[in-house]
Design a protein that fits this description.
Strand content of chain A: 15-25%
CATH superfamily of the largest domain in chain A: Response regulator
Oligomer: homodimer
Shape of chain A: elongated
Largest interface: A-B, 37 and 37 residues
Number of domains of chain A: 3
Helix content of chain A: 40-55%
Chain lengths: 338, 338
DNA sequence: TTGAAAGCGTTACCAC
DNA sequence: GTGGTAACGCTTTCAA
């Protein structure tokens, strides 16, 4: 491996000068600069990002903490992140979270300015003490689809999202509307689902109904598991069976569709289904859903982080809210047995 | 930031001893070890991965070079990579490639043992000189869905895949079978599509037909663009129009389906379509396709790399071939106008 | 403008 | 066993 010293030797200058050329410092004569450049080319020298990072105290990397990153919604957000990071000299380090333990582990290791210059955290609220540690260490953090004190976050109004979905269903005459989402007490600390459920509750009450715990099911973002929960919901006698289901994610909504098919129920004639996210798959499934700008959330979050990285200060805390809206497709219809 | 020196001071030992405790070297008395551990806890010390990497010459990271990583097939492979890397102390650094320039740039920067301890390269054959440089630098490289001299690769038999798809179509009585895939001369150097086309050519010849260039279209892995190409193909007068299309990726096949719908053609009555990959979306679209084990390819590739990383030598070059098979769904049928 | 040298935070080799 | 001390490869004062 050729080092900066080799180049210095070859060019007959000091290592410092080579470094100055590398970082195009203004204070270096055109002549020596040319000579150094020539040596660099001759030796095919490339500086070690590692050594540079250690010396400068910055690693030129952005860490992304993301639970289950292969989920369609996470990918769509990541796509936005990557788009925003095109052209910047930062590497992207992925911290995938598949268990609550992972989360702590990652944050523990990330509370060092030399692991990542900045952090993008998706969907999980960072453990309080870790967030404080990061701020203390001067590591800028931006939250996407999550909120936390003192750091900027990019979110949507999940409560309103829950209202939108439920209002749509109520407007179609449905009265037995079930909810399928994350357990509010889930180990990861996901909160969007709970907020969507809150909107659901509100609208039901406004419409004069009382939310019925028997029409609520909790489970992880998994199609298969969601299908099982939905099957359970649909197994009830017809007069108690829900005529509509609001799932707080498209993946779960797709599971519901699967369960309906299995149960021999026609959607939307026998059952209306509304999801949340509007991932690409939903277009294919014809799923009516609440659209949230996933790509934009990643793009926006990364932009804020990069801005802070550029300015070398912590980003201004604040909530950046993105707009959402209902996308009507073919899984919802007037309630037949109102 | 608390450093190893602080800990050493606090515990009243040398930095070397702290380091030994950190890397649990056998040669340190239980007593001092306990004392050091206590100091570490007291000061909430965490070693700098950066400094450690510089000193050891290993960065504890695995780089993944992947073109258009948000594509469904890439994601599925990445899912396998992540699964294989669960529990290992390596970070995952993503090098997304969206342009041929990116590719060179990434490899240039990666030809340093301190950027990544090992490299996983997907779908693009690394530029020859770079590959040599990596080997010279002792950086283990594993190729997934690509081949290269002197390095292990995880692949499928793409030629056979092309045969399987085409044979299926020929078996259904189709004679005007179009091919839609990557340009063999594409700037990224993707080659799987060209090999699939080779299998397609072979089977056509075996069946006594001559591959017709007018039934071949090239374009990137993009649904929209593939739809345009397919529309063009389908715009021909009925007697010249293909009765079947083999697309060398599912994304493109989905584009074909879109175009068929636009053209008012019924699939599979008026047009049969076969894809390649068998991504999740294809289940929904009911697409008949050649299944390749995407997840497994990532898992296998990462396993080989990690094994090499563990053994601290370059991995044995060799071709690891994964099995493929046809998945018949509802986009292919007997040719009506044989 | 440039060179020398002191860090950056570890690890690893050498004495003791 | 343990402490001291060179590396590791770069950046950045400090003098000159």
């Amino acid at each position: 491996m050729v080092t900066i010293a080799d180049v210095a030797g070859h060019a007959g200058v000091g290592a410092g000068t080579v470094s100055r050329v590398l970082n195009d410092s203004p204070k270096v004569s055109a002549a020596t600069k040319a000579r150094v450049l020539a040596s660099i080319a001759a030796l095919d020298y490339r500086p070690s990002p590692l050594a540079r990072a250690l010396s400068r105290g910055r690693s030129q990397t952005v860490g992304v903490v993301v639970p289950f990153f292969t989920q369609a919604s996470a990918i769509e957000r990541l796509r936005g992140v990557v788009a925003a990071m095109g052209g910047v000299p930062h590497d992207l380090v992925l911290f995938n979270v598949e268990s609550p333990g992972h989360l702590d582990e990652h944050f523990l290791s990330l509370t060092r300015r030399d692991r990542a210059d900045g952090l993008l955290v998706m969907s999980v609220p960072p453990p309080h003490d870790h967030l404080a540690g990061l701020t203390r260490a001067g590591v800028p953090v931006v939250l996407i689809d999550a909120s936390g004190a003192g750091v900027p976050s990019v979110v949507v109004d999940d409560v309103e999202g829950g209202r939108i979905a439920t209002r749509h269903l109520v407007g179609l005459g449905h009265r037995r509307i079930a909810f399928l989402g994350d357990d509010p007490a889930n180990a990861f600390g996901f909160t969007s689902s709970a907020r969507r459920q809150q909107g659901y509750d509100e609208v039901l009450r406004e419409a004069g109904m009382t939310p019925d715990p028997r029409l609520v099911r909790y489970g992880p973002h998994d199609r298969r598991l969601a299908a099982e929960l939905a099957a359970d919901l649909l197994a009830q006698p017809r007069r108690r069976r829900p005529t509509a289901i609001f799932a707080s994610s498209d993946m779960q909504a797709l599971g519901v569709l699967e369960a309906a098919r299995q149960a021999g129920l026609d959607v939307p004639r026998d059952l209306s289904v509304v999801g949340f996210d509007d991932v690409e798959l939903s277009t294919y499934a014809g799923l009516t859903t609440v659209h949230q700008p996933l790509f934009d959330s990643g793009y926006r979050g990364a932009s804020i982080l990069l801005e802070a990285l550029r300015g070398a200060g912590l980003p201004a805390p604040g909530v950046h809210e993105l707009a959402i809206h209902l996308v009507e497709r073919s899984t919802t219809a007037e309630c037949a047995h109102g």
